[in-house]
Amino acid sequence: MSAEEPMFRVVRGVPTAEELAALVGAIVVRTRPVAAAAPPAVSRWARGTRPAGAMSTAGPGAWRASGLPR
């Protein structure tokens, strides 16, 4: 494939610039490696407000454990 050769072509219709941009964006997202889609890191500030581990499970004493420090 040469540098002059297009990567894809429209075979039917006349897409607008916005439609072509959406198509290119979809192709770029689909061709990224799976490892690049890692979840964003959560700051310690935000993490402190979320229940985690045993505190987020229901059961005897769960209401008491929800108020205890981690």
UniProtKB/TrEMBL annotation:
Region (Disordered): 46-70
MF terms (GO), sorted A to Z: acetyl-CoA carboxylase activity; propionyl-CoA carboxylase activity
Entry superkingdom: Bacteria
InterPro entries tied to this protein: ACC_epsilon
Protein name (database record): Acyl-CoA carboxylase epsilon subunit
Organism: Micromonospora humi
Lineage per the UniProt record: Bacteria, Bacillati, Actinomycetota, Actinomycetes, Micromonosporales
